[in-house]
Design a protein that fits this description.
By secondary structure, the protein is of the alpha/beta class. It is 29% helix and 18% strand. The longest helix is centred in the middle third of the chain and has 31 residues.
Length: 489
């Protein structure tokens, strides 16, 4: 339904920023990407009206390091943050801190996965994982599910048992809409940066029942090549073993396909939630002067290669959906950009739009030229990964327009011609015909990553004594008087 909007407020000299971030959204699962079943009309509209980035990557396919890199604009090798217990310093340079100093009103709603200091430069944080993990146990926390209480990826998948208004997804929509209303009423002449971070489609993969029913029995997993797992490099096998849910022979196909149906339902649910936030933006007359960004912190294997979760450099895990729309800048819309980009580029892009200098420590590149239809000088993006709680299993990836090269601490290598082999089944690292490409990309990765320093970087970063999972309630509200109150469940 199309609602009439308020008259547009006076046009600001600098655009607002609405940054919509989901958790664990595989780039393959949108209508825009050509998925045959999943419905994402609102994300498709963003792509249609703006710019989509076909080669966008996280800087680590794991929540905490990816989000630390995103907010700081720095690579993991510079931060030393590689797992979900590493702590981001409390007084570092972050994009909300820089935008706030430049006159923006800043707010984050939902999951951030910051360990230690919980605002990282945002001026407001009315709801999110201040103490907890953001991912709500569904239907409720049970001691039998361990300290995380989430029930596992496959075991818990299915229709949600939480009343809809109490889910993190719906609270994010309500809080974002309220924040936009109050900003328009009180600070209409001030630009804003509002980050809305949804926890889905991360597990527990439990959409509302109506979304689950739309996909139940409609999504299927293909057979896999016999014996492929033995050919994978040790890092990949270690990561799959770490997750504990690898099923390369499809012995439990029905359970995995039920999980896939729930995953599709969660994605449509997030898409619908985003549609309602965008409708609020339109109704308040803010859309014409607002950069809207949608992405995710990393992808999800979603049953590919018989596994779930992340940490791998395969496209489903390390690549992201990324859509950006700014009327008057992105043009008529519908453009697809093939240049390799990353979440690390958000910080300098926001600074560029805000008319403020990008801090020298930022490792990214402003994407504003690409939004305008121009080019950028950089031809590659990097990503790093460490298997959870196994620092000896670490690696680094470089992605160019055609090639992906990965190298690991044990010396194993992978080289994929992603243009010709999008499924990444043929490792060309030992192929004589591609030796020159491999050697050039290896040189670039080793110069960037400095693997001889990797274990020291990992060990030097301060850590939480335990993950945020142990806390009983996943999210908290910050009240007007500053009190922090648990949000149940």
């Amino acid at each position: 339904m199309k609602f009439p909007s308020y008259p547009a407020p006076p046009m600001l000299s600098r655009p607002n920023i609405l940054f919509l971030l989901s958790d664990q959204h595989s780039p393959h699962f949108t209508g825009h990407a050509g998925h045959p079943v999943v419905q994402t009309p609102h994300l498709d509209r963003l792509a249609r009206e703006g710019v989509s980035f076909d080669h966008a990557y996280c800087q680590s396919p794991l929540s905490c390091p990816s989000r630390a890199s995103l907010v700081s604009g720095r690579y993991c090798r510079d931060l030393g943050i590689y797992d979900n217990q590493h702590i981001l310093e409390s007084n570092g340079v972050t994009f909300p801190r820089v935008l706030g100093a430049a006159g923006y009103r800043t707010c984050v709603i939902g999951k951030t996965h910051y360990n230690g200091e919980q605002f990282q430069g945002y001026q407001e944080r009315p709801y999110g994982d201040l103490f907890g993990q953001a991912h709500q146990p569904d239907p409720r926390r049970l001691p039998s599910r361990g300290d995380a209480g989430l029930g596992g990826v496959i075991e818990a998948a299915g229709p949600s048992g939480i009343p809809l208004p109490l889910t993190q997804t719906e609270i994010c929509v309500a809080e974002a809409s309220k924040w936009l209303q109050t900003h328009a009423a009180q600070r209409g002449g001030q630009p804003f940066c509002l980050s809305v971070h949804f926890d889905k489609p991360h597990f527990p993969i439990c959409p509302p029942p109506e979304y689950f029913k739309r996909y139940e029995g409609r999504v299927h997993l293909p057979d896999l090549p016999p014996g492929f797992l033995e050919k994978e490099v040790p890092f990949v096998r270690a990561a799959m073993k770490n997750f504990g849910i690898c099923d390369p022979e499809r012995k439990d196909r029905a359970a995995h396909e039920r999980t896939l149906a729930a995953y599709c339902g969660c994605i449509e649910w997030v898409d619908d939630a985003i549609g309602r936030v965008l409708a609020t933006l339109d109704y308040l007359g803010l859309a014409e002067n607002t950069l809207v960004v949608y992405s995710s912190d990393h992808g999800e294997m979603a049953g590919e290669r018989g596994t779930w979760q992340k940490s791998l450099f395969y496209e489903a895990s390390a690549r992201l959906p990324l859509f950006m729309r700014l009327p008057g800048v992105t043009g008529a819309g519908g453009r697809r950009v093939t240049a390799p980009v990353g979440l690390i580029d958000m910080f300098p892009t926001f600074c560029d739009l805000a008319g403020t200098a990008t801090p020298a420590e930022c490792g990214g590149t402003s994407l504003l030229p690409l939004l305008r239809g121009d080019t950028i000088a950089r031809d590659a993006i990097f990503s790093e990964s460490v298997v959870i709680n196994e620092p000896a299993h670490a690696g680094c990836m470089i992605r160019t327009a055609r090639w992906k090269y990965n190298i690991y601490l044990d010396g194993a290598e992978e080289l994929y011609d992603v243009a010709a082999d999008p499924g990444e089944w043929t490792n060309l690292a030992a192929a004589p015909a591609h030796r020159a490409v491999r050697d050039d990309l290896r040189r670039r990765v080793l110069a960037f990553w400095e693997p001889e320093k990797q274990l020291a970087r990992y060990a030097a970063r301060p850590r939480m004594s335990r993950q945020k999972h142990f806390y009983e309630f996943s999210n908290q509200f910050v009240l007007g008087n500053g009190a922090v109150v648990d949000a149940r469940p």
